[in-house]
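lol so apparently i was supposed to do this last week
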Amino acid sequence: MTIAEHIAAVAGGASVRERAEAALDRVGDDPHRAFLSLDRDWILADAEQLDARLAAGESLPLAGAPIAIKDNLCQRGTRTTCGSRLLEDWVAPYDATVVERLRAAGALLFGKTNLDEFAMGSSTENSAFGPTSNPRDPSRVPGGSSGGSAATVAAGHVAASLGSDTGGSVRQPAAYCGVHALKPTYGRVSRRGLVAFASSLDQVGPFGATVADIAQVYDVIAGPDAGDATSADQPAPSAMEVLGAGVAGLRIGVVRSCLEQADAPVAAAVEGAAERLESAGATLVDVGVEHLDLALSAYYLIAPAEAASNLSRFDGARYGLRVEGRDLAETYRATRARFGREVIRRIVLGTYALSEGYADEAYVRASRARTAICRAFDSVFEGVDLLLLPTAPTVAFALGEKTDDPVAMYAADVFTVPASLAGLPASSSPVGEVDGLPVGAQLIGRRFEDTTLVRAMEVLSS
Amino acid sequence: MSALEPVIGLEVHAQLATRTKLFCGCETRYGAPPNTQVCPICLGYPGALPVPNEQAIELAVRAGLALGCTIGRASRFDRKSYFYPDLPKGYQISQLDLPINEGGELRVGERVIGLERAHLEEDAAKSQHVGSQTRVDFNRGGVPLLEIVSKPELRSPAEAEAYLRELRLVLMTIGVNDGNLEEGSFRCDANISLRPVGSETFGTRVEIKNVNSFRFVRLALEAEIARQKVVLGSGGTVERETRSWDESSQKTVAMRGKEAAADYRYFPDPDLPAIALTDAQVEAWRDAMPELPAARHRRWLDAGLTDYDAGVLGQHPATAAYFDAVCAASAMSAKKVANFIQSEVLGHIATDGLDATLPVPADALAELLDLLDADTIHGQAAKKVFGLMVEEGLGAKALVQREGLAQETDEGAIEASVRAVLEAHPDQVAQYREGKTKMIGFFVGQVMKASKGKANPKAVKAIAERLLEPN
Ligand SMILES: [Zn+2]
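anyway here it is w/ zinc ion bound
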């Protein structure tokens, strides 16, 4: 069920309410545990309001299409837990800019989806409220951290959802679940109301059952926001307008080193994707991107450093969980001890990375590596319009397989963190299967050329 | 032991006179009920993002220009991390490596004191300890501050006091700070160490925190110098520590519970891009810079004011501007205007921060002073008219006419009055003519009395002298 089909149905006389009921029925008892909150009464009340707005003649581009929201995006009046005990009962007092824009465009906000705690993880197993399973194989992880948003689209509950991507958190779960996802250029979509993990890397992005669904949501959420100082001060070109434009004439660089690093069947599926792009008129070239080997370690210093700082506000003093201690210091300690293991690991790592005497070796060096990676991408993009590589080295792994091995878990992000560090737009599209499990191909584009990605994503999906 | 000299550096936190906070739209107004000027941003709510206040950046740059700083063209915000209830995000947004203003100087009397920097940062909230509870008012959290750090170039407590007064005056004159010490708009921490005269190295420095008046800064420094001299004189060493001023004992006391060496884990705030300033913007602000207190002081001395007059009139930008406006609108000499304002007007001027309530507009006062200057009225009448202007809000000319205070300038009429007085006092006339010329005062007084003060005393004197000349 795509957004376009939904719009056609509503135009044909169906009510948003009846369609919302159908979507809720599809979710049923949420067998994949994709949702952290899904309040039937609220959703139906919202649906009725949308019906009233439509009846009043209001033009609503999304016409009440149900869109699920990752639970680290603030939605006024609903719990926004970030998958954490610390925010288990916290009700957001305001809408994130992206949520505001979806509302204004007439989306039906359809529940809050599960995630790794504070978006830290690659499997959604770090959620304090239990993992989400992969609809394609319930014994497998859906990827992460936006696992719930990917799973609900893959399960066919909704046409689209929002996730957030810091080091691959929309692309990798899209690959594991077999759906489309786009991480826009850093600054293209407002971060206001996205509970920060690593501010210089976080970016909100859509999941879609089809590329048109992605484009439709992208057009609503992208563009400048005065409420986010890092938001790019230039209008976002429409993704809907490039649908059907094809890839003829585009030069696409295949990042050979990444294909070699991936599992052979994954690499083969990505090769197949390259051929499809070529037969659609794109020119393929093999390319190497310098310093990619530095990306994972740079990412795992910069992201935790920013995270440690961003998460210092959760002290139990003003909102969220508060565990009383004998004095202030103990209250801080007791409250913050309720973070999950992975979050604590990253806070410790990040604090260390910024500490006097270590920062030069850790944070500062990682920042230099980041600059080198940015330059390397710049120089590669002088010769090509897009890069093609696997989204992840493997297909979805089994639940529990990597929970005791954080380094193996981090390695699942090896192909996605480079674009995050460089702030470049990147996507994942399903391009094949290995033993019934989906394989994702990643595209990386030039800064602010998000719509070029959409053109190639569409070709890959045809 | 050789003689010791104090080495003093000052850190001033000056609140920028903006309407709203540094990173959100909350008002900065002082005195509102606790936690009424707050929002998700200044409370550090999840997902909230800071958006820099352009007015704060402009005020910071204008302060930098007035202090001769180098204005950073790509200055940056950094996060300074520590846990405390008054810091809702667990970090304060400040500036470390790339401050908005670097270097600079402030002239204090004959000395020029160098500045390290003047950077932007957000204020912390205000915590209040009530019994075992800590209550926090976040109204102040996020208010824009300019931290102005002097080089350790001050050499006496009196000089430190003078530096603070001059800095406050400069910031008030350019409208960057309201100078309100009671409301905490201008706060000072002092660093002090002692070293042998002639030494180039520094001794162990002690920081004296949050002294809330300029006089107390001087007293605290004097007390601290005395304390350190005793410590060093008895062969001891000065501890590096933070102390506070205790008014009742007139001593500095060690503050308890301060961490040894804090690691603030500074790093660039990823929520805030570099502050982009164009040369054109900076130059426009430079061109719009008003005359600074030191230049104004010199100009007034050149115009004939005494150092004392200039100091009194220059102590608040509103009185200074008022004085200049009256001078511009009046033909009277600056010195005479200064005298009249000091003796009659200053007592009626009420100031509140940068605002001032003026008793009468400058051009209205100029109208009165011109009547005085042209001898249309005399000094006593001018004082009376000024009082009526304040009370009734009417113009000087109208009041002079209504009260009949204009001096008699008709020579014929004055001569008739003088003749009448001379005829009535033949003995005194005889005495005058015998050489007691001081009697002239008597005749003038009699004529003035007869005219009910309206006759022009100069004209009366001239006519009387002529008529008293031996025929
Ligand atoms: Zn606020």
